[in-house]
């Protein structure tokens, strides 16, 4: 029984040691994740970026991830041994206590595995983002350097097209103005011709002109008479209303 008790204590000691080592590794691993995604590509010249630092970070990430995975694997083996021990013994201490202790160590292992996978996933996502941003930035700079002359030529071509379009619009407006001038001149000549014909017709037939004048005089006289009658009627109506 003493041998079995010593075996249990030895397993617990190994489990606690591995848990401490894993905890320290996870803290360092988490700090390493904060170094990714901090590069400012907007204010950075890609030609002066130290490629060695990125390589070292990747190497450190892979190395630390491998170390943590190995420690987690060892801790899992220790937990399995503790589980086997708790199921086979029942003499040195109550079996429920062993199961509780073994379950606690297994929960710690699960927490460490979850934290490790979460941190690893975040770091990998940041690495992929860094690679994508770097690639996009390099493509943009390459495009700017290779197509600056082409863009300037495109600007000149567009400006030339704008000038030609403006010239066409001015020509169209001048053509419209010329056609309008011709139409007005034609109408003026037509009115002059009509006026000349009327004058000639009146001169040839003076009696018609005299008749027209008489008609106009009669219309004016009738208007005066009608206005006088309306005025008298209005005055009488006002007098009647006031009295």
From TrEMBL:
What kind of membrane protein is this, topologically?
Single-pass type IV membrane protein
Q: What InterPro entries does the record tag this protein with?
A: Golgi_SNAP_su1
Q: What does this protein do?
A: Involved in transport from the ER to the Golgi apparatus as well as in intra-Golgi transport. It belongs to a super-family of proteins called t-SNAREs or soluble NSF (N-ethylmaleimide-sensitive factor) attachment protein receptor.
Q: Which family does it belong to?
A: Belongs to the GOSR1 family.
Record has Secreted as a keyword = no
Family matches, as Pfam families = V-SNARE_C
Which top-rank group of organisms is this from?
A: Eukaryota
* KW Flavoprotein (keyword) present: no
* CDD domains reported in the protein's UniProt record: SNARE_GS28
Assembly and binders: Component of several multiprotein Golgi SNARE complexes.
Q: What is this protein called?
A: Golgi SNAP receptor complex member 1
List where in the cell it is found. Answer: Golgi apparatus membrane
Task: Tell me where it mainly resides.
Answer: Golgi
Q: Where are the transmembrane segments?
A: 224-242
Q: Which UniProt keywords apply?
A: ER-Golgi transport, Golgi apparatus, Membrane, Protein transport, Transmembrane, Transmembrane helix, Transport
- Gene label: LOC106462729
């Amino acid at each position: 029984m003493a041998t079995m008790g010593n075996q249990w204590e030895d397993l617990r000691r190994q489990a606690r040691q591995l848990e401490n080592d894993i905890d320290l590794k996870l803290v360092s691993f988490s700090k390493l994740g904060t170094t990714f995604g901090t590069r400012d590509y907007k204010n950075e010249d890609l030609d002066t970026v130290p490629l060695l630092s990125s390589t070292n970070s990747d190497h450190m990430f892979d190395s630390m991830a491998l170390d943590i995975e190995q420690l987690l694997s060892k801790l899992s083996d220790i937990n399995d041994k503790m589980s086997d021990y708790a199921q086979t013994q029942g003499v040195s201490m109550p079996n429920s206590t062993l199961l509780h202790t073994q379950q606690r160590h297994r929960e710690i292992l699960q927490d460490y595995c979850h934290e490790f996978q979460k941190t690893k996933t975040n770091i990998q996502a940041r690495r992929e983002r860094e690679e994508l941003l770097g690639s996009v930035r390099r493509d943009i700079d390459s495009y700017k350097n290779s197509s600056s002359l082409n863009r300037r030529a495109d600007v000149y071509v567009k400006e030339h097209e704008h000038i030609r379009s403006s010239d066409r619009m001015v020509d169209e407006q001048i053509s419209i103005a010329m056609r309008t001038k011709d139409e007005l001149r034609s109408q003026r000549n037509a009115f002059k011709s009509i006026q000349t014909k009327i004058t000639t017709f009146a001169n040839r037939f003076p009696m018609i002109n005299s008749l027209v004048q008489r008609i106009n005089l009669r219309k004016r006289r009738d208007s005066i008479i009608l206005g006088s009658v309306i005025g008298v009627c209005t005055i009488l109506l006002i007098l009647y209303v006031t009295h």
